[in-house]
Structure to design on (330 residues):
């Protein structure tokens, strides 16, 4: 009987090593990218890479929360586009107007997450079906807000949040702040721990007194908030907006890939936001490496697919030796 807990602990440790492995892979890839840079290591290069990586990282973090519960959110990309279109209309003017615009954008992201939570928790719809439907609805609202590409955003505000402070990209600092101020305390709360319990086994979680509905709802609310942040950052980077279904789909698919690369199990119950951040930076660095090496952009989907396949295979290895996923958490 004692062999099972020991085996479960060993598997859990190995699964927690996946985010570390993702960090090592990113560090090697980014180091190679800097070596191949024709202009050398410059602050502008670091800022550009950080902005692109932080943008996808926020979307990946949004996707991670529902995945931890054993679900998925196919609407995160559409929420990003919705927030982008709304921000292009509101984030300008006086400092007070900019502040209210930022709150409105983030609040809209939370509202979109609440719609998903209602459909999944109250309506008891399958997450993949519910969020696929809501993504179409969110995209429709985006078209109403921004029927044609354009928009306006305060230049000083955009420069402040997409520039650097003493050579350190501000977007990277904001990403660390989100992890430290939001994810770290939430993951240690009762509701946060409930995400992992629900993803492992919702029936066992319910029998153990875990507030299953509240935990699952918080995942979609948090996903909406993080996707809203991503949409706001996208607006500050591009200083414009476009209601693009292709862009929404790309964000959603890349977020799922980043989640898997970062070590979060698509079965639910294990993983975290930190690994997804490294997974997002890995995906962004692939494109940068192909660019500086003068490779054809047509190769990028192939490399992303190979990395994703390897990450999925590596993440599934612990489950092959476990008859009950709860053994991972004994």
């Amino acid at each position: 009987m004692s062999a099972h807990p020991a085996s479960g602990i060993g598997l859990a440790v190995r699964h927690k090593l996946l985010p570390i492995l993702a960090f090592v892979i990113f560090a090697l890839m980014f180091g190679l990218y800097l070596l191949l840079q024709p202009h050398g290591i410059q602050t502008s290069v670091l800022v550009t890479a950080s902005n692109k990586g932080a943008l996808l990282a926020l979307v990946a973090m949004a996707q991670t929360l529902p995945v931890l519960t054993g679900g998925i959110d196919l609407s995160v990309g559409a929420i990003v586009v919705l927030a982008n279109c709304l921000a292009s209309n509101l984030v300008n003017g006086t400092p007070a107007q900019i502040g209210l615009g930022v709150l409105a954008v983030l609040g809209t992201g939370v509202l979109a997450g609440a719609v998903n939570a209602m459909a999944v928790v109250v309506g008891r719809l399958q997450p993949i079906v519910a969020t696929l439907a809501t993504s179409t609805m969110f995209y429709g609202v985006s078209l109403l807000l921004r029927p044609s590409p354009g928009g306006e955003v305060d230049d000083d505000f955009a420069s402040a949040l997409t520039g650097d402070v003493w050579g350190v990209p501000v977007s990277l600092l904001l990403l660390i702040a989100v992890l430290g101020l939001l994810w770290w305390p939430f993951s240690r709360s009762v509701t946060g721990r409930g995400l992992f319990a629900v993803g492992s086994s919702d029936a066992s979680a319910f029998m153990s007194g875990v507030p299953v509905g509240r935990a699952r709802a918080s995942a979609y609310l948090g996903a909406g908030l993080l996707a809203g942040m991503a949409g706001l950052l996208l607006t500050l980077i591009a200083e414009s907006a476009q209601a693009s279904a292709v862009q929404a789909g790309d964000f959603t698919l890349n977020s799922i890939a980043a989640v898997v690369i970062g070590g979060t199990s698509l079965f639910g119950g294990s993983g975290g936001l930190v690994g997804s951040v490294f997974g997002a930076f890995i995906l962004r660095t692939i494109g940068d490496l192909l660019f500086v090496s003068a490779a054809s952009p047509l190769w990028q989907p192939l490399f992303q697919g190979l990395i994703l396949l390897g990450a999925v295979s590596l993440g599934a290895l612990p489950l092959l030796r476990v008859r009950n996923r709860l053994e991972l958490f004994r």
Remarks:
- Strands lie at 164-165, 168-169.
- Residues 3-36 form the longest helix (34 residues).
- Residues 8-329 form a domain with the ABC transporter involved in vitamin B12 uptake, BtuC fold (CATH 1.10.3470).
